[in-house]
Batch of 4 targets.
Target 1
Amino acid sequence: MTRDNGRTPASNGYTSESIEVLKGLEAVRKRPGMYIGNTSTRGLHQLVWEAVDNAVDEALAGFCDRMVVTLHKDGSVSVEDNGRGIPVDMHAEEKMPAVEVAMTILHAGGKFGKGGYKVSGGLHGVGVSVVNALSEWMITRVKRDGREYEIRFSRGLTTQKLKTIANNVEGTGTLQHFMPDTEVFEETDFHWDLVAGRLRELAFLNRGLTIILTDERGEQPKTATFKYDGGIVSFIEHLNAKKDPLHDIIYVFGEREDTVVECALQWNDGYAEQIYSFANNINTIEGGMHLTGFKFALTNAVNEYGRRKNFIKENEAALRGEDVTEGLTAVISVKLKEPQFEGQTKTKLGNAYVRGIVQQLASERMGFWFEENPRFGKIIVDKCMSASRAREAAKKARELARRKNALDGLGLPGKLVDCSNKDPKESEIFLVEGDSAGGSAKGGRDPKSQAILPLRGKIINVEKARMDKVLANEEIRTIITALGTGFGEEFDLEKLRYDRVIIMTDADVDGSHIRTLLLTFFYRQMRSLVEEGHVFIAQPPLYGVKRGKKALQYAYSDPELKELLGDAEGKDMQIQQYKGLGEMDPEQLWETTMNPEHRVFRQISLDDAVSADEMFTTLMGDKVEPRKEFIQLYAKSVKNLDL
């Protein structure tokens, strides 16, 4: 049997010639996203993390106590440590120096059970070789055995063989210096805040390790040094610095079955849960067995103490995990021999036995702590019970809202002007400040792909309110219903009705406040919405300039206005300042702010969860002093009043 093209079904053009063999590091350059996540900001910074992780592994092994990371003027990055130095002797199988093997061959390294490292963050051994493959050039220098060696590469290929560049050298260590490849990365600008946040985190997780970060790119070089002898206890102090803690920090430490467990925790009088988990210094943002064990132990410990002291009556339901973690700040760090991470990006720990170890150690320590601190124990149980009552009230409010939506028929808010397209990927929703602006947006939108939801007044500040109070706010309920995702524990990104959620408010103080309140709500209750890049801020123009019979021109900032005006003079020039969206007619709003061909949007990203949490706590929390200090520090340099 043959087909019209004359080929047999067995071949159909698919022969041995179709099989492409990628040698060396070609696979990395062909599909970089498989190894570093993507080729934008996240992937770019992953190069730094891979080089840094190798240095930290030396610290974990007990051979390194100092690391220097430098962001150079030319856009390159160097990471230097005082560890043992990568071996330079000849590799028996590969017939090349071991350092060249590590730098040019995937799945090559000292983390596969041959005694190089007892504990490491390395999962597949692709780290530094991937950095090499995706760099325009890379220089590796090694100090060991009284000599300093150097080897150079370009896009994964060796351009200068290993050679000795100095003799009678004191100390040991490795320097990795690389230039990200512009052929691979969409942008090559490293973010100080992002790098500093990760290095600070590593210094907290590795007690006594000194990490120095220097940025040579600005007019004046800046340097930050991170060293915390208190380890993760210092981490909790840092996280709760702008909150009101209810007690001293609880610390758990133990080692069982070659697994080291550290936990530090402290409740504050707020409502947000802030728990970070790590395995071999890797931030397991999706949690895993260590986090499951910790939460189980914590919930049991609070319930057992509450029952024993009769704070929780026999006829009262047991506290749930979400009740116990309200207002809790905690860091869980485990270090184990062979971590099993789910997914290439190492975001969830899968070693089942770790759950039992963490659970046992945390249960023992928490039981002792409650008995030794009865006054604080009662305060914590009372707080958790209050959270439980609020949860029940929120559940009733949720059910009431669902029943109301069912009675309404379609279940969508009455003031939502929906789009006709039912494909979320082709749809977007504008959250618009006020009915006036909402009217202009309705008139100017593309009805096929753009939905409009006018918001009246300011939503509740979720940073200062429990969920039952949040759900009592009509505007919050309206947003939740319109997006269709649910919120909090029930949030499901797959049910999102619009691919882009666009906040469109006036360019004044009230508009900035509304934006910040909305962003706080999304961050606390719909965090994946922000993490996955679905939240945007519209950028309407500040000025309209009319010159005689010429078409109206727009300026989106004061510098743009100045550039637009130039040296022009004359009575026929009119400048209008738009103080609110409602001052623009539908056609103007469409052309300047809503038309995909011309509009300017800012996508909200969440690169550093710790810094983001700190920012929301500072600006939206109960404590006035941190907010006052922040305003005084940044008032002169402020460009945008929202986050």
Note: Residues 141 and 150 are 4 Å apart (CA to CA).
Target 2
Amino acid sequence: MNEPGPSAAPGAVFLSYASQDTDAAQRICDALRARGVEVWFDRTELEGGDAWDAKIKRQIRHCALFIPLISENSQSRKEGYFRREWNLATHRLLDMAPGTPFLLPVVLDETTESAAFVAEEFLRVQWSRLPGGATTPAFVERVFQLLAAHAAPSRAPFPLRSSSAPGLPAAPAATRRWGWPLAAALTCGVLAGWLALSQGWLHLDRIPETKQLVILPFKNIGASPANEAFSDGLSETITAQLTQLEQFQHTLLVVPMSEVRKESIGTASQARSVFGATLALSGSVQHEAGIVRVTVSLVDTRSLRILRSATLDHPMDEVYRLQDRVAAQTAEWLGLALSPEARRVLATGQTTVAPAYALYLQGLGELVRTGNTDAAIVHLQQALVSDPRYALAHAALGEAFWQKYTETKSRLWIDEARRSCNAALEFGAALAAPHVTLAVILNGTGQYEPAAAEAQTALRLDSASTDATRALARALERLNRPAEAEAALQRILDRYPANGLAHMALATFYWRAGRNAEAESHFLRVTELMPDNYAAYRNLGGLYVMMGRSERAAELLEKSIALKPTAAAYSNLGTLRFQQQRYADSATLFEQASQLSPHDHLLLGNLADALRYLPARANEAAPVYARAIGLADEALAVNVKDAAARASIARYCAFSGAADRARKEIAQASALAPANLPILLNAAVVFERLGERDRAVEALTAALKGGYPLADVNQNPDLAALRADPRLAPLLAAPAKTGER
């Protein structure tokens, strides 16, 4: 080994690569050395340890430019050697003067920004793509430019291989690289954050005024599945804590993690396009030698600049302090002062038992990430064995039991869910979350008055809770108190006018109420605020189907399906084709919808309706109606007051020859929701099918006067004969105005 000789370029380059990318790294090394660039390129056979650590630390500390080679190989969690070098580079950045170039990522394959282990905010700064390590003159020139801009530090001596020509070290034969046994993984958020600081890109005074925040699912650094669940659970708890801070000020809106996961949001740019978020909090979690290290970065979603970044370490025996530190750090970055009351709210229901907290995060992560309800229940129950008074764990267990019910329709899980929520309130009386879960359970079982009471209690504890507000609105609407339900939904929007999800909820309410102009206005606003949100186009397209705007409806629904295929989008498009008497296309679309959501009786009922109009498949309609009736009966077994389910059963029975039950179900549905427009339309279809023309005219008249879309009535083939009744002529001649208020 000799000391490094002088190089023609001002400073040395450190080349970091994965073992499987040795050949590509050699090509880049050879090209740079051919131009007189000093390259520190370790190909010696090392097993890690103190000697390797000391050598690599000196090299990274004194190099002028650090070039990591990014590929599928280097992104593997098994590449501890590569990750260790990244981590050392992070520490190097701490000591560098602002404005000093240091990092030049090079991508060797088709690895995309979203798939790379390093964050998109980092790769967008400066990176090159050299397939297989094939260099270009432009790349070599860029290296020279960065080296020239770098104030070359003094280089301490350390051994490198000798050269075969003066000043040009020879490339030794390739040997294997060894993994680092307890490799510190790349803390990409901190690395990117310090990169931003050193390059002058970090604007500490430019936090957006409107703080619509998305917490991205935290990345797990390591191969353990248990740690994956831990990372996901931590994302959930931090989202919940920051959401609780909304009630103490009016500049923050946190997008629910359930929505983030539903839309598979993984990057800051996606958070902006799908939710209109102005900020994103990204993070990673690493477990090593009894320490949990969490790296968090606050990102401006417009510029993709990292505005703030930090690394927080905690020993496992104090891991329960972690979420408080992350939430407090984020609140500080956002300029939110934590009052004593806010701190009290954040501390409510927590634990100081480290094993209980770790199991709680794991259970929560299983629940939200994989949908493995059984595993979630087991971990949450184990958490409660460690700390029986852990209120948040009781609350999460209540949610898990309710989710188990929705999966199995077994009523025993409802009782378990209630018991867990009540236990959560016993040990955490000031928690809003268990009241919200109870409201959801009560709404789902037809107990609307107590559901409204639970939601109102939750709002007294957390006045900004959107989940509680929506649960309240749902209960009020089913209690036939639409004005109060509308006011509740409007309060969410009044507090934060740019809340796209609130516009969506209000638009859907107006749609159900037959107030189509208002529904359209809010749906259009959603598409402005959340331009890549598939649900916005699905819902607006569905509204246009009902309004007879067929061409625009098809365009929007096809766009929704392109963004994300969903049962509802296929169903809406199937309804449009049904109206257009394209029954074969309609049946195909309803079949696709049913495949995505096989337990939805509405989709099966729609499919049976289409099959009736296909001579070659008409005999399939009856068994499909029977399946739809069976699923709707399961819903009634839980909620006997489900008026919509009863109206649907009435229609299925009317076309299946079960006239008596059809009359019984439509009568009960009408009594439960006398002003519900879809139920009124169903009644018209049912009575017409049963040959009771007078009652059909009465029901359709009420629906049209209430604001039900005339276009949908005119295009419904099941109402063709009824539309010819002269008593309906005045209403069918022009749209009703009553519902367009």
Note: Residues 645 and 712 are 21 Å apart (CA to CA).
Target 3
Amino acid sequence: MTAHLSVPAIDSSTGLPTSLSPLAIQSLLLDGLKFKGLVITDALGMAGVAEPVPAGKREILALQAGNDILLFPSRPQLALDSLHAALSDGRLDSSRINGACLKVILAKQWSRQHSAPKDDSLPPLPELQKQLRGAMLTQLGPASPLVLNQSTALVIIGNRGDALERRLKLSIPHLQVVRHGKGTITATEQARMLAECLGAQQVLVAFLDESNRPARRFGLPSGAEALAKSLGDTHDLLRIALFTSPYALQYFEPRPNTSWLMAYHEDALTQISAAEAWCGEGHALGTLPVDVGPWHSGQGTPTSASRLPRAQSAPHLRLIARLDSLANAALHMEATPGLRIMVVAQDSIRYDGCHGHLGDAQETPVQRHHVYDLASITKVASTTLLTMMSEERGMLSLDQPLAELVPKSENVPLQVELGRRTIKDLLAHRSGLPAWIPFYLDLIAYHDTTGLGLADPENPMADWVSLCDERCMAPGWADSISTRIRSTEPKPPGRYRYSDLGYYLLQDILEDLWGKPIDQLADSMIYAPLGLTRMGYTPLDWSELTDIAPTELDTLFRKTHVRGTVHDPGAAMMNGIAGHAGLFSDAHDLALLMEVMRQGGTRHGVTLVQTGTAALFNQRAFPNEDNRRGIGWDKPGLHPDTGASGDAGSWSSFGHSGFTGTLAWSDPDGDWTVVFLSNRICPDPENRTLIDEDIRTKALCIVQEELGLPFRFEAERGNEDKPGSPH
């Protein structure tokens, strides 16, 4: 490439820049150095060549000097017309044109011969483009994703931003948009935008006028600094994105309550990636490439996606319509007061439906951030995962007898036959233990005769266990649960019988091995590493009561409408923290956890368990028995139209359901996860319509059909020996 330089040692006679000098190119480069490759000018619109030589003439001189390719003529049509005229009147020889063209053709032929073989390991182009933008986006200052259920205002400065707005509205449906064009932000305009943002809990500002020209302030209009300062003064945290050169940062001062997202470009794909990064649904892994003002090269806070991304709804209209119809039918038949369904396919949310109300007196419409009692999904989302981690670290063995693991108690020895059962027996529900024991009936009976079992929460005995707002329990009753279970003589092993009781023992084992309560273990080892802020035990510690769906109107035990505390009576007697129940979550966080396990235990650099451990626990525990269960996980039914998933999902699929009306199911082969949350037992636990009508299973079947996947037994016809099948 020839530069627009003045080098008198090479050419002191023509007065031309080296890019147009025959002495520099033809005499020195081509004849003297014997260069045989392509010769390309630097941009012909640059001042170094444009000021001394007018357009049209400089293109002729460039070819006469020996250049083969003319880069960025400022007036292409004038250049072509001038070259034609020079050829006609003999100022330019056609052999010069032919020689340049031949070199270009030979270079193209050479590049095809030496092109790199196709790399099949590279992702498809759209995925590669998304990865590159995630690696480019640079986070400066405080880094925290948007709270998606808070009121949010987006201020767009510039004439673009439609892609940014559309993508944000997928995650924040009620986004308020405030617009201003490219012009100066006057005091009047600033006041208008401040007033429109006043009620918003979160404010985003996007400067969308990409420019690399200092004379244009890199696309920032006058008044941009004042607007940023005013918005920062009136909001706890201001988020600003610059879709232009990083040198635009020189016009702003760092502030402790301002977060910056350098996006560098204003194209639609970059806008989408920036929106995803803001929402915690995409990466911002870049660092600043230059020193500018108080910022330094290499500065940045790389942030990875902590939430599931959302896909555009247009390709999934039939899926949306069918699931909406199913939900409306469930509400019409009063199967549940409200429900939430989330479908994740190919790593993106394809459907997120909120239907009905919470079942409270206010009939609060179901919203995305609402939390449900997961009931028995606790068995897999807490206890099973912690058992997987323990087995992986060699702290226990699946075939180890309980007598070696259950903490010793002099007062309550473990029943001998029960002590011979293994961890695997408990997790596969074939230990011979009964389904459950109504421990709370003993408490009620004791209360009815002496008045000492249930107490006023104002009782000075601070150690009493709170059952709900108005009723407490003496802590000794929790010990009585352990006594009953340890003393239970199980039936012979081998017969599948679903039981909660083994999970009380697993809780004791895990807490003894790790030296921490199970709720602290689950939070520190599972939910916190994945950034799950809407999942955990004792939900009133991290959620508002009004955001939690109520469950049963309990007229027997707690004598109140249960809300904000676990529905399961046994778990309630354990202070809401148990191995079999007690976990609460919104749909997103449960779906993300299931996606991690569907992908083998790792997501975005966070590893819960190794792939081999995930595969071990996901296989049928006892394939030679009439038992569909995996190790902790529920698995597809062995016969048509049976099990929690019905005929949907491949044999590798897994999940769990909950008594309150919940279901989480993932299929590694089909590449999907479905979460179904409802409170079907509100207010009546005897309401079995959701179960009798197979509403949850029908949701899975709709997903299976709309994703174009074969049903399990249809795929098995004529292929009974397929690996992984029950045959």
Note: The chain has 24 helices and 21 strands.
Target 4
Amino acid sequence: MTQEELFKKLVAHCKEYGFVFPSSEIYDGLGAVYDYGQNGVELKNNIKRYWWESMVRLHENIVGLDSAIFMHPRTWEASGHVGAFNDPLIDNKDSKKRYRADVLIEEWIEKQNEKIAKEVEKARKRFGETFDEVQYRTTSPRVMEVAAQRDAIHSRFVRALSESNLDELRQIIVDCEIADPISGTRNWTEVRQFNLMFSTQMGSTAEGANTIYLRPETAQGIFVNFLNVQKTGRMKLPFGIAQIGKAFRNEIVARQFIFRMREFEQMEMQFFVRPGDEMRWYDHWREWRMKWHRSLGFGADNYRFHDHDKLAHYANAAADIEFNFPFGFKEVEGIHSRTDFDLSRHQEFSGKKLQYFDPESGESYVPYVVETSIGLDRMFLQVLSAAYVEEVLENGEERTVLRFPAPLAPVKVAVLPLVKKDGMPEVAREIVDALKYDHNVTYDEKDSVGKRYRRQDALGTPLCVTVDGQTLEDRTVTIRHRDTMQQERVAIDVLPRIVDEICSMRSLLKNLA
């Protein structure tokens, strides 16, 4: 099965099992907008909780905030979004499809890396244990040729981005012979800038309405509340402000399911530090955030850092944490050293001082900021992609299972009466009532136990508890574990402790402490 086929199955699975639905589907949907179903919203909330508790609960110097989506329009002038929040846009004249020019070039560069990797793997098989990869990469004419071409294009690309040279971006696309994946032609328009912000009107009448924007990021709500939080919380540097909230971007190309959407959710933390300390804290958060991802147990090799070729206008250092999705390594989270740009700009545009008085030095200054920003929807897709498994069992049967980390699973326990009589449903309901105040529990009595197991596997439920005839005699039940399918007999009285040990968020948080 190809990665593309796997991704299509994953998308279909999301709809079939109540994770993600196309928005307004009865009206044929709305492009790049999705709704989270009954299981999707539970998974999403659990991811939020993992992030929030790891950032706010585990750090005494980080507090939370929930700022408004609508903000004064001057906010976005100060932040630079009105004048500079653009992506380079290019159209194919034959397919009439629109693309980001920089993404087309980045994908071409990645294809060259894949070519090199294939050459290396072929050589590894040919030479066996004597294979020296470093020597091969530096002596193979084919590998050196592809690498030289890639590096030359990469250098041109970085220079074009830094100079905002749209003509050069188009010329790189032409020189690399990049074709439209739909029409197969290279009939491209000129590259032009496209502002990503959604605007709307606020006011009682059309004539008196003001133009405002749906926020394209949640960070500015933190910056304009910096002093409110610092003074009311008596916070001392360094300290952070965390926020989870919706953001909106009029993306040129919204694709790959929920990976790139026009309405999405962010989990951001802005960490305020003394000027000069920012790189130390940048390194700290860079490593800590990678640890957070890897603690989920999806394999360290599926993550990597990608340092930015072009820094944003506000940054002096930036890196992405990328995950190996079915469509390749893509960004999930960004870590940025934003200097004092944001607070200084808001101080300038508002006329209000946004400075911190340092009791140790006796001076006032504008703090520097280190940001961690993760796309919740991308994180949701990462967890689903990593958890989705199709496997053949020893008896030849097949099953689809979502191997979620138990604390993130939408449903923690499914309680199954063996039959719908003889008092078994009543005992099953009693177990549900005992567990439901601490965990999301479901009751399932339809179909055979085997079919119910398969259904819960496909939902990612870590534990199934079966009530049978023996239960009525000795108050014991069978616990069936999702990943191993092993079963054990336990007393009903110890169920809460067992479920808590396996499914509590505590287990994930302890890995980080």
Note: The two ends are 39 Å apart (CA to CA).
